[in-house]
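Weekly puzzle thread! Below is a chain. First person to post its structure in token form gets bragging rights.
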Amino acid sequence: MKVFDGLYAFLWQDYRENNCNTYLIDGDTKVLVDPGHRHLFPKIRAELEEIGITPPLLNIVAITHGHRDHVGAAGECCQPALLAMNSEEYRFSQKRFGAELNIPAPDSSLEEGLFTAGEHQFQVLITPGHSPASVCLYWPLRKALFAGDVVFQDSIGRVDLPGGSGKLLKESILRIELLDVEYLLPGHGAPIVGKEKVRANFQQIKDYWFDYL
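Winning reply:
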């Protein structure tokens, strides 16, 4: 789906197998956020081709965190694009999944602060809780937040996986809630569009889920 000019969302809606949402930031520099599982990437490739994009045209693949359903296709499926991923999260992913994923070392580490990808600029926020060094990418120009598995529509990322922490996830949610967001783009489920809807979603998460963290 086209979210707005320059942003496409490839939402995973096949409930027979878990996979993440994938996002394409288009322009002179093309950034693919979270390519998903390696064995499920052919579906994403076909959807990219529908809008005239093939993997060789991608410039950067940005990863929110190192779980297989987000990073698995980042190796051979997305070459020759450069890989941007937090270095601590990459080490966590390698320790947990190792050769199973065959993911090369990042060309650029997504660290707290500004990340420039050609004409696009993002604010990187380290948001642990679902995983040790998960990141959210905030696109100030479009007030869009790529939230990974920190928050979803009416829900939050799991904290019972290795490296998870309810305390840290709560702190991460309170951080990203402060951003001026009109497009909340989660790693699973439907995007939330509209500032008031985004605010209401954060409030609902706090009202319900914070009692369990």
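Puzzle host: Confirmed. Bonus trivia for everyone else. The first strand starts at residue 2 and ends at 4.
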